[in-house]
Amino acid sequence: MKRILTGIKPTGEITLGNYIGAIKQMVNMQDEYETYLFVADLHALTVPQDPKELHDRIKRFVAMYIACGMDPNKCTIYIQSENVYIPAMSYLLECTTSYGEASRMIQFKEKSKENKNFSVGLLTYPVLMAVDILYCDADYVPVGIDQKQHVELARDIAIRFNSRYGDTFNIPEPLVTSVGTKIKDLKDPSKKMSKTEDSPTGVISMYDTKEEITKKIMGATTDSDNTIKFDPDNKPGISNLLNIASSLSGRKIEEIEQEFARSGYGDFKKYVASVVVEKLGEIQDKYNKLINSDELNKILDEGKTKTEKLAKEKYELMKQRMGVIR
Ligand code: TYM
User: Fold this and answer.
1) CATH number of residue 131's parent domain
2) Which candidate, 128, 282, 289, 319, has a CA 20 to 30 Å from the CA of 105?
3) Span 55-60, mean pLDDT?
4) pTM for the complete prediction?
């Protein structure tokens, strides 16, 4: 059985973008693949975090994964920092990654511009991500388009390590869905909907109330031409709403375009809001039942035991191949 794996970093609350770009794909694939889903809390540390908030968010992420449809009986769910071999392996891979490669990553370029005092961890971020993927020989990595470059770097690192030290890692592939791969900020559809973005009206969090969701969608930036057509270059706002409605309802974009061919933006937005409210409402009901249950700890203990065993084996193999053994 092929393996799929993905992670989300708890730098803010899970957004609709994370759900559509990553979690939903995992939910759909968990029956056919051996599935791993984790909270990338070490990645969150690459930018400043409030320890108390980070701590609270980690557990909320786990409950949200399950509420979104991840089945702990089919999928291994764990917290990245609980696997002690991950950072140790990351160091070994840092020594087989060039500074040039790491500093060419788009995310690094953007984030290092935002804060001139950026951490060393921000540079080595994609190497840690490569370990997340390679320690368990993942075959496919479902991600939004913004993370594709990092998965490609993981491939390059694995290929180089294998050719330098002998076969050690499986070569993974990114999986990016065709619909809704990059959900945009509702207020500024030129940028992605991001949990770290200071855009309270442009970002839908998975915890938003019905009223908040409706207000945000009704206030989404569109254009003045009043036709509902998928055209991301010229109509980024409307195309984003079409993407959201299509991925959450399972309907084709053309079908929605046709239904609203003679409608104004107001009616169309009401429809999109109703789709989001319904889907998030179902997820939130499940989340509220789970968040304080003991079940979460049991799931995380099992995830830790299983993934630590796999990572230990890979770590020992890497050390042996690299000659750092007694
Ligand atoms: P993160 O936390 O930024 O995002 C988690 C996942 O959600 C996708 N995503 C989006 N997809 C569509 N539209 C959006 N607006 C949007 N925003 C985010 C991202 O592409 C991603 O798939 N480095 C990763 C976490 C990570 C990881 C890994 C992922 C750490 N190790 C190993 C895969 C494999 C990150 O910061 O994702």
Assistant:
1) 3.40.50.620
2) 319
3) 96
4) 0.93
